[in-house]
Input
Amino acid sequence: MSQTSFTFYSAGLRIAAHLYTPDTPAAGPHPALVVGHPGTSVKEQTSGTYARRMAERGFVTLAFDAGYQGESGGLPRGLEDPAQRVEDFKAAVSFFATRDEVAADRIGLLGICASGGYSLSAAGGDHRVRAVATVSGVDVARQLRLGADGTQDPAVFQSLLDAAAQARTAAARGEDPGVMTMFPETAEQAGQLGGEHGVEGFEYYCTPRGEHERSAKFFAWESIDKLAFFDAFHAVPLIGPRPLLQVIGGRAVTSWMAVDVHQRATGPKELYWIDGASHVDLYDRKEYIDIAIDKLTDFYTTHLGTDH
Output
C-alpha cells in the first residue's frame, strides 16, 4: 500500500488529501472509496486508518481534511459548515472521476462519526456514488441539538445559539469572537459533562492515544447556527436503490441515530452491530476495527467489486 498527498478544490477551497493505493493493483481502473473524518478530526486520525486498511483490501481510497480544518483552506479555522462538508464529499468524487486508476462507475463513500451524516447527504444527491457506508455515523447537528444520547435538555442548545449570536456581534465589532471548545481540561471533567462517551472522546483527541496537532478540537461559533437548521438524514430516502451499510458499536450511545437512518432508508440496507464496542472504540481499537474492516470489505466488494 502506498500513500500520496494530493489537493483538490471544493466550493473554491483547497482540500488536502491522502490517496492510498494497493501495493500490487491489478491492471485497469479500480473501485474507490472516499473516506471522511469525524468532527474536528483530521485525515491522519481515524479516517486515515480506515482508508489505509481498505487500501490493503484492494480499494483505492482517499482520506481528506474538511474545508476550514486540518491542512485544508478556509477561514475561520474550525468552521463546521454542513453545506461545505457535503460539498467536500462530492468534490472528492469528482477528483476520483478524473483519475485513470479509478473506475468512475465504482465509487463509494465511507463516513465516520460526523462524516457519516454528511456522506448520507452527499450520496442522496450524487448518483455517481454507487454505495455508502458509515462507521459510528451521526448527524452532528442532531447531536448538538439533542445530545449524544438524544436526551439533552433543549435549553442547552438554546444557550449555544445565544453564544453563537454574541460571537457574531463581537466579530462585527472587530473583537475576537472566540471558539466553542469541544473538550474540558481533564478526563474527569469530560466524564462529568458527557459520561463515558465524553471520557472516551477526551482520551482519543486529547491524549497520545489519538491526538494530532492539526485536530482543532473546537468549533468556530459560526458553526452552531449553521448547524441549527441542518438535517443530515433528510436525503436518506434518495439513496435507494443504492445500498447502505451502517456499522455501529453495541455500546454506542449514539446508535439511536443509526436506527433512525435505517428506518428512513428505501434501498438495500443493513445495521451491523459490533458487540462490546462503544462509539469511539470504532475509531482505533484494533479488535473492533478488524471486524468493521471485514464487514466493509464484504459490502464494497459486493457492490463495487474488488481487484484482490
User: Anything to note?
Assistant: The longest helix spans residues 154-172. The chain has one domain: 2-146+230-304.
